Amino acid sequence: MSAVLTYEALLSAAIAVAESRLSQGPEWLTALRTRALAIHKDLGIPTPKHEEWKYTPLRTVANTNWQPAEGGPALFEREFRAYTDSKIKIVLVNGRLDRNLSDIPATPGLTAMSLFDAIGSEPTISEFLGQVASVEEHTFAALNTALFEDGLYLHLKKGAMVEPVIEILHITSGAGQVIAPRILVVAEEGSVAQILEQYVSAEEAANLTIPVTEVVTHKHANIEHVRLQDESTENFHIALWETRQTGESEYRSYNVAFGAAIGRLDQNIMLDGRHITTRLDGVVVARGEQILDNHTKLDHAMPDCNSFEIYKQIIDDKASVVFNGKIFVHQDAQKTDAKQTNQALLLSPNATINSKPQLEIFADDVKCTHGATVGQIEPTFLFYMRSRGIPKAEAEAILVYAFAAEVLELISNDDLKKNLEARLFEKLGLS
Amino acid sequence: MLEIRNLHASVSEEGKEILKGIDLTIRPGEVHAIMGPNGSGKSTLANIIAGRDSYEITDGTITYLGEDLAEMEPEERAHKGVFLAFQYPVEIPGVSNTYFLRAAVNAKRVANGEAEIDALNFMKFIREKVKLLGLKDDLLQRSVNEGFSGGEKKRNEIFQMAVLEPSLCVMDETDSGLDIDALKTVADGVNALRSPERAFVVVTHYQRLLNYIVPDFVHILKDGKIVKSGDKSLALELEDKGYGWLEEELATSAN
């Protein structure tokens, strides 16, 4: 068995579309797409022989002839949970900005527009689009780059203070399609905002969602970014989320992964400046036969930066979860303070966790710690609570909640926190 | 209130018999002390009353307020007024004492067909209990037992007892690991809760606690059986002469 699957059989319809798009748009975009498509063809679809994809079985993904994404309906039958009462609701359907479903009131300092339009009208976008995502290491991000048709461009002006949470809802609709949502966030100097990026399915169906989100935070920007992946448990979701921070910015990111049959996220943050603060946290809940794989990478390139990472993973039934946490501390990054914790709570004897902290430190004056634990609900905890009158199911719910709360409590918006907790209970069948 | 007849019990996994025929009757308002050397089965007895499933009842009966206690889940026992103060209280990070106790109180109320108590009234109610026991308010916001000293954990057990207002309070070596001040606080708490409707079973290795919580009856447990019962003077005699004396006593009376 080789490390990649034969390319020809896969995604051929999507590739044809990507090839037809190469000549569209400005020259820089053509160059970007041409390179990305070549990378994708070269990398192919990895097999479990590939170290970075060992626990993400892609055979079904590889053996399905995914069709290019089509537009969704004008209205959806199901309702989508509102996580905040924010006035800013941006809806993308199968990767395209839906102007009718979106509500983007004029907000001082904020530009939120279709990526397609932005490519035409915003000359500076070429400095960032495709410049943050490491497509050479991620075949699906490369495909996204070649294929994306539209997406969202969020720009925060210098000093912009956006009060309401910027809610972005990605809806996948239909079946058998490869969907390539693309987001670019540029936070200029001193801007402040909270972003909720949510992925949901309109129907219980299998699509292949391959989102790429790129974020750039400039000096003194302060951005909180929650990503909720709550797609159908029949769906395949393989994403790249990459952030580049420059001097003295603060970026707090929370990955909440509940959905997909196979859900894979690579989240990379480059700390490319001094006095940067970074949070990279995760709450993962996998049930049934879900496989949720999260690879995180923190690159400490410069001195005097802090990064904190807490991953909480709850695994039930026959589900399996993967955590791979890389922290690179480069030679120049003296006085780095990096702390990584990853904890798994197994609720069933058939649940699986594969955990791999990976710290590579090339500077000598740094503080780097990591800890990984795997546990179950302690029978003594349960008995203690039951002896106080709390019924077994409720006691379990409280213990699971307490486990996840350490991360969820960090989210600054109270409505968002409360609704994520409610969704967590629902996901666990405990509500 | 509690009738224990010919109770035999063993450890579920190993099958080793620990209790070998216990008979005990407890009426409302009474305080019973259960004393005995290590391994005599006193903690087992306390845990069986609360329903810990690591023990199996192999023979005999436990009847509480006319019902078969052995048939009830631990939470049902709590709803009917049984409380166990743990020898080793469990730390639950991330769950505040207030949240924990409100869940417990409301579970009990719902089970007994009463309406749940709202957050505001509950706060009022537990602040009164904090005052009654002379504890500090910050206890309420802290995670259940997390980072508590041994003494704080035991005080928290008594606080929970005060909040849940049980009818039968079983205390499993609540005095172990306490200095004299903590011991007095715990005993004062228990004494504040004594009432004609409420009974206590105080399991202890040492007589010391019984200076402060004065028992109506003292039972000495040895090798899974109650070998001697008496009033508070029995505890003093035991303290004075040690468990060795008991061996001799038993040997003499057997002859």
Structure report:
The complex is a heterodimer of chains A (431) and B (255). In chain A, 20% of the residues lie in helices and 38% in strands. Chain A is an alpha/beta fold and 431 residues long. Chain A has 8 helices and 24 strands. Chain A folds into 2 domains: 4-272, no CATH class; 377-431, no CATH class. Chain A has helices spanning 12-21, 27-43, 59-63, 115-121, 139-147, 379-386, 392-408, 414-427, and strands spanning 4-5, 45-46, 67-68, 89-93, 96-97, 110-114, 152-156, 166-172, 177-179, 182-187, 192-201, 208-209, 212-217, 222-230, 236-245, 250-257, 262-271, 277-286, 291-300, 306-315, 320-329, 337-346, 352-361, 367-376. In chain A, the strands form 3 sheets. In chain A, strands 3, 6, 7, 9, 10, 12, 13, 15, 17, 19, 21 and 23 form a 12-stranded mixed beta sheet that branches. A 10-stranded mixed beta sheet of chain A has the order 5-4-8-11-14-16-18-20-22-24, with helices on one face. With 255 residues, chain B is of the alpha/beta class. Chain B has a single domain, classed as P-loop containing nucleotide triphosphate hydrolases (Rossmann fold, 3-Layer(aba) Sandwich). Chain B has 7 helices and 12 strands. Chain B has helices spanning 42-50, 74-79, 97-111, 119-132, 150-164, 180-193, 232-254, and strands at 2-11, 17-26, 31-35, 55-64, 67-68, 82-85, 92-96, 143-144, 168-172, 199-204, 217-222, 225-230. In chain B, strands 6-9-10-3-11-12 form a 6-stranded mixed beta sheet, sandwiched between helices. The longest helix of chain B is centred in the last third of the chain and has 23 residues, at 232-254. Chain B starts with a strand and ends with a helix.
Please describe the topology of this protein.
The complex is a heterodimer of chains A (431) and B (255).
Chain A lengths: L3 E2 L6 H10 L5 H17 L1 E2 L12 H5 L3 E2 L20 E5 L2 E2 L12 E5 H7 L17 H9 L4 E5 L9 E7 L4 E3 L2 E6 L4 E10 L6 E2 L2 E6 L4 E9 L5 E10 L4 E8 L4 E10 L5 E10 L4 E10 L5 E10 L4 E10 L7 E10 L5 E10 L5 E10 L2 H8 L5 H17 L5 H14 L4
Parallel strand pairs in A: 3-9, 4-8, 7-10, 8-11, 9-12, 10-13, 11-14, 12-15, 13-15, 14-16, 15-17, 16-18, 17-19, 18-20, 19-21, 20-22, 21-23, 22-24
Antiparallel strand pairs in A: 1-2, 4-5, 6-7
Helix pairs in contact in A: 1-2, 2-5, 6-7, 7-8
Chain B lengths: L1 E10 L5 E10 L4 E5 L6 H9 L4 E10 L2 E2 L5 H6 L2 E4 L6 E5 H15 L7 H14 L10 E2 L5 H15 L3 E5 L7 H14 L5 E6 L12 E6 L2 E6 L1 H23 L1
Parallel strand pairs in B: 3-10, 3-11, 6-9, 9-10
Antiparallel strand pairs in B: 1-2, 1-4, 4-5, 7-8, 11-12
Helix pairs in contact in B: 5-6
